[in-house]
Write a structure and sequence with these properties.
CATH superfamily of the largest domain: Regulator of K+ conductance, C-terminal domain
Number of domains: 2
Strand order of the largest sheet: 1-2-3-4-5
Order of helices and strands: EEEEEHEHEEEH
Largest sheet: 5 strands, antiparallel
Distance between the termini: 35 Å
CATH topology of the largest domain: Alpha-Beta Plaits
Shape: elongated
């Protein structure tokens, strides 16, 4: 797995970058307002950005799914297909979520909805079995397992508190 570098961008937000196996540097900037930008650096100058692609919340969630959440969810769906009333869903943390910038334990998801959060996908990286102290960020995708009603309740909880 590639090493992710994190850097604070004063007044702007946070950037996470890594180098591909081919030596390219790519990154995701998370702006203070929760928006994201995908950045690609010059091949011969790892400090020179050659392309910057703004991503809305839905686009960031879609990209996260393409990069990591989809295979995990597919495996969970396969594991649960013989269990009646058990579903797994990928639920994003919206930019305006009351839990953006707080820890997972603040949601009290298990107590309030009877569901389990089995992983968090952040910038294409999977955080398995997150603990109550795991921080939540806009654009994170929570992988939730429970009943349909329970996962619907988590979706509402993340959006409205």
């Amino acid at each position: 797995m590639a090493d992710i570098e994190e850097q604070v961008l004063p007044g702007r937000g946070l950037i996470h970058t890594f180098r591909t196996a081919g030596g390219r540097r790519v990154g995701v900037i998370t702006l203070r307002n929760g928006e994201r930008e995908l950045v690609v650096y010059e091949r011969n100058d790892p400090d020179c950005v050659v392309d910057r692609i703004p991503l809305g919340a839905d686009e960031a969630t879609t990209m996260a799914g393409m990069l990591g959440a989809t295979p995990l969810s597919a495996q969970l769906d396969e594991d649960h297909r013989d269990l009646d009333n058990v579903v797994s869903r990928r639920l994003p943390i919206p930019a305006d979520s009351p839990y953006n910038g707080r820890v997972l334990g603040d949601t009290r998801t298990r107590t309030r909805t009877g569901t389990s959060i089995v992983a968090i996908v952040r910038a294409g990286q999977v955080i398995p079995s997150p603990t109550p102290s795991t921080g939540l960020r806009s654009g994170d995708v929570l992988v939730v397992v429970g009943t349909k009603a329970g996962t619907d309740a988590v979706e509402d909880l993340l959006a409205h508190g």
